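Before going further, it is useful to explain how the protein records used in this thesis are read. An example of such a record is reproduced below.

***
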Amino acid sequence: MNTVLITGCSSGYGLETARHFLARGWQVIATMRTPRHDLLPRSERLRVLALDVTRPESIAALLEACGPVDVLVNNAGIGLLGAFEATPMALVREVFDTNTFGVMAMTQAVLPQFRTRKAGVIVNVTSSATLAPMPLVAVYTASKTAIEGFSASLAFELASFGIRVKLVEPGYGPTTRFASNSGTRMEGRIPEAYAAYAQSVLAAFAEPAAVTRERDVAEAVWRAATEPTTRLRFPAGADALALAQAA
């Protein structure tokens, strides 16, 4: 029976992805900073464990507790919306610590077992913001674009070991990532000089032509994890698909 380890399962894409794999008979290790056992169906195939991807000791403790895994889904991430001019560098580093360095740290931690077994899949969840420029998300986009380049290079590096690296690129989902993960980081990030421009941008965000559903992302992660091809990118949601086709 295959085992998947998913980061960032307290809400949104990660939570739905955990449900998706559970429903298909996999063993699921669902991680979150503060474990909650009421979010997922009870199952002998499910373990909910603590993980902070920004802390090396937390990563080490998790891997010791969970044992071998077949698929790593790097989903944990935080959003940030605002003018770059008003974004302190400490906040930039906070976003990169989770969205970029956290993904790299988790990947590096599982590689020895994957390489030894000559098998394994790494699925990195990024964003459609990497497919086309979007305003007021410069830091967030940079953190995700770094993972796009990292994954594309790593896919070549690990292919000879039988390890596959995949990217899932979710489209815009206002009820998921930014709404739940930006939090107080958005406060005061749009100074008066940017107010008129930001208002028009936020109005467009509020009424997108298409919205990516959580199950769109879960299905894309499933395909990325189980499809035995060299395909790298899996856009998720109608808007992400349209952007990918236009690129």
Remarks:
- Helices lie at 12-23, 56-66, 89-117, 138-159, 177-181, 195-206, 214-226, 238-246.
- Residues 82 and 136 are 5 Å apart (CA to CA).
- The chain has one domain: 3-246.
- The mean pLDDT is 91.
